[in-house]
Amino acid sequence: MNIELQAREIQPLRQTFDRVATYTGDKPASRYLEATLGAQPTEQFHYRPTWEEGFEIYDTRRTAIQLKDWNALRDPRQFYYATWAMARARQQDAMEANYQFVESRGLAQKMSDAMRAQVCTVLMPLRHVAFGGNMNNCNICSRGYGTPFTAPAMFHAMDQLGVAQYITRLGLALEEPGALEAGKNDWLGAEAWQPLRELVEDTFVLKDPVELFVAQNLALDGQLYPLVFGHYVDDHLALKGGTAVAMLTSFIPEWHAESNRWVDAVVKTAASESGHNQELLTRWYRHWADRATAALEPVARLALGDDAAPLQTEVREGLDARARKAGLAIG
């Protein structure tokens, strides 16, 4: 008996979900597009939130920014949960290798006592700045609109939590747990940290999720991380034998550079929609960037001494260039 096998190609009735095909056409879509486009609930809510009865649960009116389509705020990294988790897992493996290298060779203990103390003085209070970033991005996710905007905000919140945990782990590697308590006391009472603490606490009460996005992720983080983990840790400390600190915090500047792609894309898309959006985003940026510059001044002096002023100017000019490239009207 002979059996004849033939291959047949079966054409699917459709290539992707209807809500995705609305934007991309009926063709195969990436997992990122399927996880984000059109995923925002828009109707059939049973009741309004009791804590904010003037709005629906998901409501575009919580921000003064106006967009025809909130699905336009896409993440160029194309992060959805799986790709974000895999990327962070790879970075976690790299950080574990760094810790193993530093601990096996006793590199942290080879730093002078004065340098370890100064590193703890500068970096330990930043745990609380990162916790603030975590809370603010949770707020952006909660009050924002559109899955392409709110989902990366939640990933960013968890990344900020990771930054705080890496700083905590650094403190434990350099000093006894007392370093963490000293950092907390500095955050609460030391004169140099009070302007930054006031700025962070002021962002906690911002109601507009897009203004909060600009204040936290662009204006503050855009100056803090290049100044502290770029100029202080990677440049200043490395020249004085503090390479171990750079290795134990290497995730932070790497994450910041990667996240800038998302932050800039959101600002650029929103600003290009209308003159109203551009004017509003520019006003928010100027206000919060100026406040962040002033709040970071004593921290920069604490970290960089006489080199603080020119390096802080360089960082601010770099951030202004980013904002200008993203479409804001920065002169």
Task: Kindly summarize this structure in a few lines.
It is built from 14 helices and no strands. By secondary structure, the chain is an all-alpha fold. The model has no long low-confidence stretch (mean pLDDT 94).
Share in helix: 55-70%
CATH homologous superfamily identity: Ribonucleotide Reductase, subunit A
Beta content: under 5%
* CATH architecture descriptor name: Orthogonal Bundle
CATH class categorisation: Mainly Alpha
Query: Can you count the helices?
Result: 14
Helix-strand topology string:
HHHHHHHHHHHHHH
CATH topology: Ribonucleotide Reductase, subunit A
Protein name: Phenol hydroxylase
Pfam families: Phenol_Hydrox
GO molecular function: oxidoreductase activity, acting on paired donors, with incorporation or reduction of molecular oxygen, NAD(P)H as one donor, and incorporation of one atom of oxygen
InterPro entries: Ferritin-like_SF, MP_mOase_hydro, Phenol_Hydrox, RNR-like
Description:
The protein is mainly alpha-helical and 331 residues long. It has a single domain, classed as Ribonucleotide Reductase, subunit A (Orthogonal Bundle). Helix content is 69%, strand content 0%. The protein has helices spanning 18-24, 31-36, 81-104, 107-110, 113-123, 126-143, 147-174, 178-189, 194-203, 209-239, 243-248, 251-273, 275-304, 308-325. 39% of the residues are buried. The model has no long low-confidence stretch (mean pLDDT 94). This is Phenol hydroxylase. Pfam families: Phenol_Hydrox. GO terms for molecular function: oxidoreductase activity, acting on paired donors, with incorporation or reduction of molecular oxygen, NAD(P)H as one donor, and incorporation of one atom of oxygen. Keywords: Monooxygenase, Oxidoreductase.
